[in-house]
Design brief:
Elements lengths: L52 E9 L5 H17 L4 E2 L2 E2 L1 E9 L11 E8 L2 H9 L10 H11 L9 E8 L10 H10 L3 E7 L2 H6 L2 H8 L3 E4 L13 H11 L9 H17 L4 H9 L11 H7 L21 H40 L8 H15 L6
Parallel strand pairs: 1-4, 1-6, 6-7, 7-8
Antiparallel strand pairs: 2-3, 4-5
Helix pairs in contact: 1-9, 1-12, 2-8, 3-4, 7-9, 7-11, 8-9, 10-11
């Protein structure tokens, strides 16, 4: 029940109550509200950041039968990220933050409603990818109202009125299960300026009869339906191989520092490997790595120096990578400057190739459009996100 990647917006015309005859409401065991679990070492989000923010909380049903949708989420993460690379309000580029929850898995705590916060809001995209690839499914009870409530109350949502704040909940069981009604959870979210969007894994008719459409209408969000088992067609382009190779070359320009450096470098390489297992994902990940959204200032000296997270001349020897230990401040700076130039050159080449690739793929998509079936996760997210961003005075292109 993972359909929850889609950022959406739009007014629906379906009634605000689930139709009569929906399956009976299942009740969870007596529960106490549990504090959200904290993910290991997420990238810090600067609450005082002046740039507009796009915050997306993905609530993924990880009960049985959702393997196909989870796979779509893994493979299409970078396509979705790339959609926000140019997100802006006026002349200001927006910062993207993603949070992950899973719900409905029987191995999770019954007392906590079978819900787990996987990652709080973070800009560490490799961490998000790593956690998506680590998800496993297992049968359980799915409490949509409760997971919406937890995400609303426990995440560090922006208080700025103009920021884009979205919850995406995906699944396929009746939306009415659990002791927390979706009506009260959505009212709570709306009070904080958060829009809830639903992604039902199945037909629109079934989504309507089980409360998914009604919940989105009440939230003034968008109700989306996808085929979670659809095999997404990848359109190969002449630029793919070079883009993917350049993405791997970018890793050589990252210089880890401090305790997180070595671990983060390994995560970066592991997510390259994960992406390479799917046709197209290596390309879209490389494009993400060439964008401003791929910020690793929490562990990389090049990004850290650029963002002011570190001062090379003040760093302790033990926090420096081996190649910079014993070097003078000027030698450190020269080394980092050289890596920064090398990275900028590679990123520029990737961006040029991507521009060429987009033209090629657009022409191919026109010919293939009539042969395709229902929406896949990335298409649903991108189309709905564009509409919702416009409503907040934000453009994605």
């Amino acid at each position: 029940m993972l359909k929850s990647f889609a950022l959406g917006l739009g007014l629906l015309t379906l009634p605000t109550l689930a139709l009569a005859g929906a399956p009976p409401i299942k009740q969870p065991p007596p529960a106490k509200e549990q504090p959200a679990a904290q993910a290991a070492a997420p990238a810090a989000v600067d609450a005082a950041h002046s740039a507009p923010r796009v915050q997306i909380a993905l609530l993924l049903d990880t009960s049985s039968s959702m393997d196909g949708l989870i796979d779509q989420a893994r493979r299409q993460l970078w396509t979705v990220v790339n959609t926000f690379a140019k997100a802006r309000r006026g002349s200001q580029l927006a910062q993207l933050e993603i949070a992950l929850y899973e719900y409905g898995k029987s191995s999770l705590s019954a007392e906590g409603g079978y819900i787990r916060q996987i990652v709080p809001f973070t800009t560490d995209l490799d961490k998000v990818s790593e956690e998506l690839f680590g998800l496993k499914t297992n049968g359980g009870d799915e409490y949509c109202g409760m997971v919406i409530q937890k995400a609303t109350r426990n995440l560090a949502w922006s208080k700025a009125k103009g920021d884009l704040k979205l919850i995406y909940i995906a699944g396929n069981e009746p939306f009415t299960q659990g002791s927390v009604s979706y009506q009260s959870a959505i009212a709570d979210a709306k009070e904080r300026g958060i829009t809830v969007n639903t992604i039902h894994c199945g037909s629109a008719q079934e989504g309507s009869s089980t409360g998914w459409a009604a919940a989105a209408q009440l939230a003034q969000g968008q109700s989306l339906n996808i085929d979670q088992n659809r095999a997404v067609v990848h359109i190969a382009a002449p630029q793919d191989d070079e883009i993917a190779q350049l993405g791997r070359e970018l890793n050589k320009t990252y210089v880890g520092y401090g305790r997180k450096g070595a671990e983060a470098k390994m995560r970066q390489e592991a997510q390259d490997k994960n992406a390479s297992a799917s046709m197209g994902s290596a390309t879209t990940r490389a494009v993400s790595k060439a964008s401003r959204l791929y910020d690793n200032s929490g562990w990389d000296l090049v990004d850290g120096a650029k963002k002011g997270a570190v001062k090379l001349e003040e760093m302790k020897e033990e926090d420096l990578p081996a190649e910079l230990q014993g070097k003078s401040a000027s030698e450190r700076q020269a080394f980092v400057d050289a890596k920064a130039k090398e990275r900028a050159d590679i990123q520029s080449r990737i961006q040029k190739l991507q521009s060429e690739r987009e033209k090629f793929v657009t022409e191919k998509q026109k010919a293939a459009a009539s042969a395709q079936g229902g929406d896949s996760l990335d298409k649903a997210i991108i189309e709905s996100a564009t509409k919702q961003a416009e409503a907040q005075g934000m453009a994605l292109e």
